[in-house]
Amino acid sequence: MSGLPATMRAARFDAASKKLSVETVPVPAPGRGEVVVKVAACGICHSDLTQLDGHFTPKLPVITPGHETAGTVAAVGEGVSFWSPGDRVVVAAGRPCGTCRECRHGGGIDSCEKLEIMAFDYDGAWAEYLVTPAMTLVGVPEHVPLEQAAVLADAVSTPYGAVGTAGLRPAEAVGIWGLGGLGTHLVQLARICGASPIVALDPLPAARERALGLGADFALDPLDEATPDKLAEITAGHGLDVAFDCVGRGASVTQADRALGHRGRLVLVGMSPDQLDLGAELNFVRRRHSVVGHLGYRMKHLSDLVELVARGRLDVSGSVSAILPLEEAAEGVRRLREHDGDPIRILLRP
Ligand SMILES: [Zn+2]
Ligand SMILES: [Zn+2]
């Protein structure tokens, strides 16, 4: 009836054995208010590695990874009036729980207290098809490649949300630790926001070089002993207004925190199980520092980014480092894990 095939290929991760394999599984059917999307491409993200390494236990014992995707609408469920088969869409990487206080009050995806994360709480998009609530979709204009739209759904939208969390304003001094998928886009977004100066930090020379090309004013090696002094010098001794940590390791968070100036804000975007050392409590009080964790983005952020890319304000064409067939999911994971080719985003294409 829906015109969908009965089966599809999908990468499946078994949390108990930590095995990732590409298998033939049933194509999901759209429930009420849901849409089935034919996946055009899906990114491989560091948070996928965190799950594959066993640091996060998925809600399902066997789950399809991948939470950064775009494609075309293949089938719509009952009660879906806005979307039709063939529509080009980018898919938000989370869905509302439907039962929390905010959801009961009609808050939905942007305010849900227990937002379910695609590929962690329900099946993701390293697959030919994906089922998702209609409210998680944003339309993509014909001239924006779906591979670029896919990257927006986390690697660009999460830093875009983090810029909002930081309350970043023009002429503020910004440091960005970690120049992978998130940090590289933060450099571009900080530039759009008018931050100045923008200091990019990463141990990899190629990543630093790339950041300079995308709008960073300075690029430093965080492992260089002289880096704290250089940060002070760049900001004329005032320190940074905003530090974004996209690494999540204890050492980088500590360095980012120490580089903050008066009323400095540290925004934690990267993820790891590391313990944090934020130094003496009185530094936070006397220097009015704040530290805040950031995860995800709002639907408006995703549509903002489609607008910025569609109008040529934001160029993410360089963000698609490689596109591999879905069957080579494990090879894509290896390349990201080993920084092989210094990827911003490796995408899987079913
Ligand atoms: Zn991600
Ligand atoms: Zn909820």
Automatic annotation (TrEMBL):
Keyword match Transferase: no
Coiled-coil region(s): none
Residue stretches making up the Enoyl reductase (ER) domain: 15-348
Gene Ontology molecular function: oxidoreductase activity; zinc ion binding
Record bears the keyword Heme: no
Record keywords: Metal-binding, Oxidoreductase, Zinc
SUPFAM superfamilies per the UniProt record, alphabetical: GroES-like (SSF50129), NAD(P)-binding Rossmann-fold domains (SSF51735)
Domain of life of the source: Bacteria
Family designation: Belongs to the zinc-containing alcohol dehydrogenase family.
Name used for this protein in its record: Zinc-binding dehydrogenase
